[in-house]
Amino acid sequence: MIYGLYLSASGVLTSSYRQDVIANNIANSETVGFKKDLAMLQQRPTAAQELGKWNQTDPKLEPIGGGLLAARSQVDISPGGIEPTGNNFDVALQGAGYLAVSSQGKMHLTRNGQMMLDRSSRLVMSSNPAQAVLDDKQQPIVLDSTAPTTFSVDGTITQNGKTVANLGLFNVSDQSQLTKEGGTLLGIPDGQKLSTAQPEVHSGFIERSNVDPSTELTELMATQRQLEANANMIHIQDETLDKLVNDVGRIG
Question: Which of 89, 145, 183, 246 could form a disulfide with 121 if both were Cys (CB 3.0 to 4.6 A apart)?
Fold first, then answer.
């Protein structure tokens, strides 16, 4: 009976974790370039499996398993929809690849193409002017704030008909290893080599979040039902234990 309580409790905890992940996705359904998180779960091994003490377990309980555990969430890198903005400094990438951004002295990747020029004429992120957009040599891009600016489909930046810079467009060998580091920035894990990417750059557009609110709400309701089912199981087992201790075990 106590074992059943442990299984139900692990179900409550994992469902609560999954709810938090889904709720964060819904909250960022309108965030430009946002990539939703996937709540990953894994089967928990039994105590006998963890310790290798097969002679100290009940063979009838072992097939039940050890319940569920939350695993590290993964980032869904599928693209979001493209939306026109009319702002020349907004760019959307179509195809594999990311923009390179410098934040706190470290390079990050992002699909958020909302950019602007700061007071120093640096090309920076609109959401955070402290984050500089990098060129193909991983250096900050400085433009002439008085000249018309054009972004070509290959990422070339021209002013007055002359090429002045190239957007840094990069990718990694294993995108599943990218980690979120605040906002829409993705961290590059150690050991992952950068490669030059060639997505199409569309000026005057943005890439929307890849979160579908209706799908996420459906998942949220299903997760809530799973949490309630496990909570009810805890209540039922608690009542059964109460009767076992106070009624069955009573000496007449």
Answer: 145
